[in-house]
Amino acid sequence: MKINLAKSAGFCFGVRRAINIALKTASIGKTVHMLGDIVHNEDVEKQIQESCITKIKNLRLGKGKIFLVRAHGIDNKTLLKAKKLGYQIIDATCPMVKEIHRIVRHMESECEKIIVIGDKKHDEVRGIVDQLKKRALVIEGLKDIPTKEIKRLKNACVVVQSTQNFKETLKIISFLKNYIRNLSFFNTICQPTRLKQQEVRTMPLKNDLMIIIGSKNSANTKRLYEISKSLNKRTYWINAKRDIRERWFRKVKTVGITAGASTPDYTTKSIIKYIKELNNKLSPACEWSPSA
Length: 292
What we know:
The protein has 3 domains: 2-10 and 193-289, 4-hydroxy-3-methylbut-2-enyl diphosphate reductase, catalytic domain (Cobalt-precorrin-4 Transmethylase, domain 1, 3-Layer(aba) Sandwich); 13-94, 3-Layer(aba) Sandwich (Rossmann fold), CATH 3.40.50.11270; 96-189, Cobalt-precorrin-4 Transmethylase, domain 1, CATH 3.40.1010. The protein is 39% helix and 20% strand. It has helices spanning 13-26, 42-50, 76-84, 95-107, 123-129, 147-151, 166-177, 191-200, 203-206, 219-231, 265-282; strands spanning 2-5, 31-35, 53-56, 65-69, 88-91, 113-117, 137-139, 155-160, 182-185, 209-213, 235-238, 254-259, 287-289. The protein is flat, with a radius of gyration of 21 Å.
């Protein structure tokens, strides 16, 4: 059995940057508070907790403490509250997400409506819509489009959650163009996401089985799984080696593996090692290749 690892598997720049900022902040020696996880991955979460960064549900008195803003960004109301409570703010928001914030703030005065294609409850999307003075329209998919509201718009600006499915986004844009005469579209899906999705559109066709590694609350990993599953039914989404089943690999000659943007390399390597060990029970040898 041959194992093919996607070249784009694992951390993107924004995630790596956020983790480095978090660990550097922890070394300062002050109390560090964070609302939620720095990124959506259990292994990274454990590493951050071990560095003595405290995950809290509500902001407290922050004098002499640090408030760490996560990679997905934060809404202005929470940021303002943290400042009023006396926290020192250290911002680990992904630069690409920051760019989306800049775009919507600039375009709000230029168009009638800001439209965000993304997951309504995702932290990144909440942070984007909170940049605006007027209500934004968030669209999760084609079935979610409020046609009556769209028909009333003469002009609009569209941005996209940085980890969305590019092909599905284009379908939504095509629909919107049928009704909105002047539509400004900013393709804010980040480059690492595009590369990962490009690879996962070919790998499932070249491999008998696909393994997608990442947390179940990771939006970008979810997209990779959905794309792969649509092309190869033998696609499995796992977070750790304990999720693997030996029966998946019987009579399998090639396995394609990719990992979400918040999945550490050590997690991927441990899973590859485990698959090789499993395969040795089924056949004499197993090789792997770091390519799609």
